[in-house]
Amino acid sequence: MKIIISQLRPAVISTLVLAVVCCGIYPLAVTGIAKLASANKADGSLIVDKHGVIIGSSLLGQNFSGEGYFHPRPSAAGASGYDPINSGGSNFGPTSQKLADSIKERVSAYRISNGLAPNQPVPADAVTASGSGLDPHISLANAVLQVARVAKARSLPPENVSELIAANTDSASLGLLGVAGVNVLKLNLSLDALSAGALP
Amino acid sequence: MHTNDWLQLGLFIGLLAALTKPIGIYLTKVLDADGRTWLDPVLRPLEQFTYRLMGVDAAKEHGWKAYTFALLLFTAAGVLFTYAILRLQHLLPLNPQGLPALNPALAFNTAVSFSTNTNWQSYSGESTMSYFSQMVALTIHNFTSAAVGISIAAALVRGIARQSAATVGNFWVDMIRSTYYLLLPICLVFAVFLVSQGMIQNFKPYDTAKLVEAITVPVGTLDATGKPSTEPQTITDQTIPQGPMASQVAIKMLGTNGGGFTNANAAHPFENPTPLSNFMQMLAIFAIGSGLTWYLGKTTKNQAHGWSVWAVMMILFVTGVVTCWWAEAQGNPIHQALGVAACDGNMEGKELRFGIFDSSLFATVTTAASCGAVNSMHDSFTPIGGLVPLFMIELGEVVIGGVGAGLYGMLVFVVLAVFIAGLMVGRTPEYLGKKIQAFDVKMAMLALLVLTASILGFSAWAAVSRWGQAGLNNAGPHGFSEILYAYSSCTGNNGSAFAGLTANPPNGDSHYNITLGLAMLIGRFLMIIPIMALAGSLVKKNIAPPGAGTFRVAGATFAILLLGTVLLVGALNFLPALALGPIVEHFLMHNGRLY
């Protein structure tokens, strides 16, 4: 009993002191420094249009389905996909019937919409859901296969569209780490800018 | 399996090796009550002030029983603190989304989960936790559970190194010094770095973005007669969650906690914006655990022993990484037959910026250490790719392992390895000059058997129960893997998941929340108590000078013996269960079987 009482005070007091130091002072200090050093990033890398309306975050993907837009990866985040309140993957395993059915459907839709031959392999990222359901990127191969469709829908020369892909590619960190990917939201925004806002 | 990826693997291991000694040196100063560090001018006054408030005499050391008791009482206080905040969330500040309180079973599960360094999450962060709950109720455990792990490792190492002594240290001093001198300063720098990569850190309400292209999607609803149907729904907005994320993620990684700010954890582009942030997060997971092996060598005055333990860890680690990476790069033959490009590997559940390699490396790092953060969905890995993280957890997370927990877990295997060597040559086993006797081996075995019993026992129960099967997202052997992974992860205090499993169902069934909570408590404390008893037993023994017949605990012979012990125990305990899950699924996948 004596030992309980003697150790109770340090147990309770240390919890409270550490709550103040680690959960009060520390996060506030980080917030303060972040605000000074990189405010836009700390606030979510938001993209604002010319009227001052938030139209997205350069880090978060959005749904696109129009012919004149590049399409992102399938998404399992929320019922409609790309819902950041419900981030996550499909969590279907390798022997899942549901997953195989979805992939079959997506492969055929992708081939039709991009005019691929019926036996041409489709880039894996185009027909699989990402881990977060918010993946902002598609692979270079996936983007290249969509160029013809987008250029036709917008009546643009394919070279101009390809140039925009290069301009909106995030390369591997330090040229070594990770995989280069095309940021779909930024690419589609620059397409809109190129078409002077006139949607097909 | 590209050249670039091999270079990344080399860079990762090279940097880890280079960091091990500097961190080890710093640890020897932090874990010495009188140690001097260059942060003393700022932190010494804070440290002294904290002891004064607590009424602790920093110069007084304790035996193993008092040390363990203080640790248990401190954890109990922390669990109650967090449980209270989660239950009162709706009344507390910093809740701009007006999120309600958690139900009792979920609050219990979460409080236990964070205090045991597991960070299993039955909830999804962005739709459940207020900023206050994230920042205070959860983050405090990210710091303290890591500090507790380091303290226990220090107590055990002192037990090995000291001669004919009675005390193993002062828990309060070890815990406070680890937090102030080690975790806080590194986290401050790391968090600012993470923001520079794009991680959020703010207190504003969630933003609403107007979508560039409004989208019409069929959404499943129930019609007037209660039958499920789909209705087209036009979506024009995207809600963008915000919050103080970077400060929490820094300690989530450094302290091998792993609890995500968001549901998607380190796969979320806010929580892991770039491949560089990903690389640094992986390094942070391993940094302290790796440094502790140097601390072991330094404190026991046998640096070769410390490095030999590190080398065994690395052999297991590299084997795991390469196996997982190979399996994921091979991809899924079923999907390839449907037209998916074979050269892309298995991309389901993976982020494009990380690709196959960084996803496989992260999965192995997070389960080798008891971190549990994920940058890809392990549930969607190929069977062998998913077997690697599962097996890493089941080995006891002794490959670098959780901060502190990895070292004390590995030392249990060292004691067993030395015991087996003693039996083979017919001498009384000795470890660094100390006789390993019946009591020590009993404690080491107890720590191992408790984990196995919890994992297999709970998995078996869930697998044959209605509540257990109701939570599954996948059928067939993969469903069993989801259950086995859940109890392995919780018992091993890892926290990652085959996340298709619904542990907190909408109907309020609390079986998973409670059994997983118990598995976490068993895995943490029924391991810690025998280990502290082992420390208490070892510290009393005197050290015999090395002779001609002494078994050297360094070099290739020792490393092979240790490696064999770890693998043999892991394989004997879990191979039958693994055969029913991932192994049989591997063959079924190659036969094109679907469930």
Contiguous runs where pLDDT drops below 50 for at least 5 residues of chain B: none
Chains forming the largest contact: A-B, 110 and 134 residues
Percentage beta strand of chain B: 5-15%
Strand and helix order of chain B: HHHHHHHEEHHHHHHHEEHHHHH
Gap from first CA to last CA of chain A: 79 Å
Biggest beta sheet attributes of chain B? 2 strands, antiparallel
SS content category of chain B: mainly alpha
Give the low-confidence spans of chain A.
Answer: none
Please indicate the percent range of residues of chain A in DSSP E strands (runs of 2 or more).
5-15%
Count of helical stretches of chain A: 6
Order of helices and strands of chain A: HEEHHEHHEEH
Main sheet attributes: strand count, strand direction, barrel closure of chain A? 3 strands, antiparallel
How many domains comprise the coordinates of chain A? 2
Please tell me the overall pLDDT of chain A: 93
Mean pLDDT of chain B: 94
Q: How would you describe the overall organization of this protein?
A:
The complex is a heterodimer of chains A (200) and B (595). In chain A, strand 1 (46-48) and strand 2 form a beta hairpin. Chain A is built from 6 helices and 5 strands, in the order αββααβααββα. Chain A starts with a helix and ends in a 6-residue tail after the last helix. Chain A folds into 2 domains: 2-43; 54-194, no CATH class. In chain A, 49% of the residues lie in helices and 7% in strands. Chain A has 200 residues and is mainly alpha-helical. In chain A, strands 3-5-4 form a 3-stranded antiparallel sheet. In chain A, strands 1-2 form a two-stranded antiparallel ribbon. Chain B has 595 residues and is mainly α. Among the domains of chain B are: 207-240, no CATH class; 405-590, no CATH class. Helix content of chain B is 62%, strand content 6%. Chain B has 19 helices and 4 strands. Chain B has helices at residues 3-30, 40-54, 64-87, 104-115, 125-128, 131-161, 171-197, 245-254, 275-299, 303-330, 333-337, 355-368, 383-394, 405-425, 438-463, 466-470, 477-491, 511-540, 555-590, and strands at residues 207-222, 228-240, 430-431, 434-435. Chain B has a two-stranded antiparallel ribbon. A two-stranded antiparallel sheet of chain B has the order 3-4. In chain B, helix 6 (131-161) runs parallel beside helix 8. The radius of gyration of chain B is 24 Å and the shape is globular. The two termini of chain B are 30 Å apart. The interface between A and B is large, with 110 and 134 residues.
